[in-house]
């Protein structure tokens, strides 16, 4: 009996303390006030800026700990030196590399996003990081943006739904997520200063929603300001974005952290919503002057303005209060879990996200799956079959415990096949900020690959980009839509000797595909992390049925993309200002409304089986504000393999008084159905989500009248339309 009582008490204590750890109770707030009253002005100011590349000081006198941060969204970056961007060369900081967030977005699976957050949060906790500098949710506006691979695609609803569980997963480890880069950092070129001009409507309908969801639903504990400017003010200290929208309208009670080097002015940093200044003296990636920390904008210059009375002490109190709140949620929360690193469960999560995120784009003559038991000669061609994709890309790069290459994964799974690899093409070494040519001879590589392909039953081409500079990497944008390093020509040459070709593109961006008619199978695989090769072999062998859907459109040519349609002032701008002239018509919104057929549409993704949607209906015909639309339908698996489908619900307004996209994603649900079976699916959509941002109010305006409901399994594959009325 005694044991039972004891156990119950321990359990009760654990639950209570965990509840407290999650939801700050008023006694924590009173503790914060108590500490604040003991801090000197110097100590308050010290809290607001870096003491090293990735840490801020606590208050040693009171035993208040330092705050340690680490990149990135896909895994915990290797330890970096105290004062410069060099790696410290630790031997115990190899981690699990999870797939890039474009892959997570392509899963359309919120539950998996939560598992991802829990796993990456455990690894951050184990590495004693209090803030994980991710996730990134900047909207995919142009296929040239160097960092699209780190984000969740072109649609604000998809990003809003997937960012919330990721954040909750990370933060249940007592580690703060840091949603970034707030806001309008949609390209890398001139990122440090470009001033983005965009309509209020597009800001509120396209670029803010994922951040709003991160704060209001995800309860994110920190937000990273973007490098660029908006309305002529740097986003890291921006009165409208930070004081008004983030802190006042959305009620954000956490810490605003600069991007590294994102602060530019003491008075603005003090008064326009910045709480913690990091990386000043760098452009976020180059070396800062040694021990520059005292000269940070929120360091000595700030202290002087406080002492002179030019800035009221209440200003620094608010920052210190937020920072102490972050500490009680993280390194001063006595009950936070201990974390774990690089274990089978984390590896399984990485493999599951990769497997569910790979998108089967084309599958002529049922090219995929390839039977792993048949004695085939398989030519595996391309540098991306063996090139690691966890290094490179900029701040999100990782040092994994291991990374299974596509070739290795295939060799392990296709034991009866005769697999021959030829590199086919070569990019240069991964050098940040440079495009280093390869020392290898392109012609001899091509000829060797053609030779191998000519003798094979099947050709599997692994191409794409590679996280080198201007190839999906921070700090630069791509210069065109085409595949680099002669891949297009190589594919043409391979086709001449063997027409049984499947292509696997490994990239974080859309690419042009002049060879598309000549290849039978095509998959969009992402930067898949530690388990790349296993996940690709799972899909290629048919062990896993692909269920990924594109989180962004693939334009047939660059000028078909909205941002590029409006010329250089729209992208990349004139190096001072940039104008988002497409307004709300980003991605499929543009393709649908302007009737420009994409190469592959947002939400597109094939399966090894087939599905049928039927019985689509809404619970009512007429709705009023505040209500919820419940849409139900049946999904039948009419093929001969178990699989998953994503029911997508788009809604558009007929005869609106303002310009609108034909349709916008407002709900989706992923459902697993065994072969021959069927499943009932329910999607609920808040009527208020149909409002548009009305600049004349300004505010959200739920227009009355008829709306069209489009239900299908891709934005360009609508099974049925229904109509509803808002009274
Ligand atoms: C980089 C990136 C940001 C990263 C930070 C620290 O410049 O913009 O995403 O978290 O600096 O590396």
Quick overview:
The chain has 727 residues and is of the alpha/beta class. The chain has 19 helices and 26 strands. The longest helix has 21 residues, at 2-22.
Summarize the structure in words.
This protein is α/β, with parallel strands linked by helices. 28% of the residues lie in helices and 19% in strands. It has 19 helices and 26 strands. The longest helix is centred in the first third of the chain and has 21 residues, at 2-22. It is globular. Alpha-D-glucopyranose (GLC) is lined by residues 71, 133, 180, 259-260, 284-285, 395.
* Count of structural domains: 4
Question: What's the average pLDDT?
Answer: 95
**Which structural class is indicated by helix and strand composition?**
alpha/beta
Count of runs of 4 or more consecutive helical residues: 19
Largest beta sheet, briefly? Answer: 6 strands, mixed
Helix content: 25-40%
User: Strand order within the widest sheet?
Assistant: 1-2-3-4-6-9
Instruction: List ligands, each type once.
Output: alpha-D-glucopyranose
Number of strands: 26
> Which residue ranges are poorly predicted, with pLDDT under 50 across at least 5 consecutive positions?
13-22
What is the CATH architecture assignment of the largest domain?
Answer: Alpha-Beta Barrel
CATH class of the largest domain: Alpha Beta
Radius of gyration: 26 Å
Strand content: 15-25%
End-to-end Cα distance: 62 Å
Query: Based on CA inertia axes, which overall geometry fits?
Result: globular
